[in-house]
Design brief:
Blueprint lengths: L6 E3 L4 E4 L10 H4 L3 E4 L9 E8 L6 E8 L11 E8 L5 E3 L4 E4 L10 H4 L3 E4 L9 E8 L6 E8 L11 E8 L10 H5 L1
């Protein structure tokens, strides 16, 4: 009887990447195949595998545990070996920044630069992250006259895997368009 188990070399652990549809191809063409399959009696041996998948640290990341097995013609089994395949999302999200806008100060020289009045980002999209939401930070500078303010609003969008879109800038100009009041006194009226 043949009671010697076959031998083989497992492919190395590997990282592959999801596509624009958050799909991936874990075929051995991309992840590697077993090499050096050998046995004392059986020829033409071909290792097989089974996959177990688990979610990674973010949407779009998958951990594939691939267990390779090899059995010779007499039923002698090599020890199973495990290959780890990590699927990562490296595609950045996209969005459209609102247009530059002018708003106006009120009677107290105050203003409201809420996105309701200045515009919000549209077309936020990502291949793996559902409903990405852009954020912004503002830097203000005085304009050319008292009451005028220039707001530089920097919009940012990062998906759940940390892939960041290129920041985009919106310029918001706050203008004072309220005319001054001229008060008349009785002395001025007499003149």
């Amino acid at each position: 009887q043949d009671n010697m188990a076959p031998t083989f070399t497992i492919p190395v652990d590997v990282t592959i990447y999801s596509d624009v549809n958050c799909a991936y191809d874990a075929d051995i063409v991309f992840t590697g195949d077993v090499t050096d399959e050998a046995d004392n009696c059986s020829t033409g041996l071909d290792a097989t595998y089974s996959d177990a998948t688990a979610a990674g640290n973010c949407e779009g990341e998958v951990i594939i545990t691939r267990t390779w097995s090899l059995v010779d013609d007499c039923g002698n089994t090599a020890g199973d070996q495990v290959q780890t395949i990590i699927v990562q999302d490296t595609i950045v999200p996209t969005f459209t920044v609102p247009i530059d806008v002018t708003i106006f100060s009120d009677a107290n020289c105050g203003y409201d630069s809420d996105v309701v009045f200045t515009g919000d980002v549209t077309d936020e999209a990502d291949n793996c992250t559902a409903n990405p939401d852009a954020t912004f930070s503002d830097a203000t500078a005085p304009g050319s006259c008292e009451g005028e303010v220039i707001i530089t609003r920097t919009w940012s969008l990062v998906d759940n895997c940390g892939n960041a879109a290129v920041d985009q800038i919106q310029t918001i100009t706050v203008q004072d368009n309220i005319v001054p009041c001229l008060l008349y006194t009785s002395d001025a009226a007499d003149e």
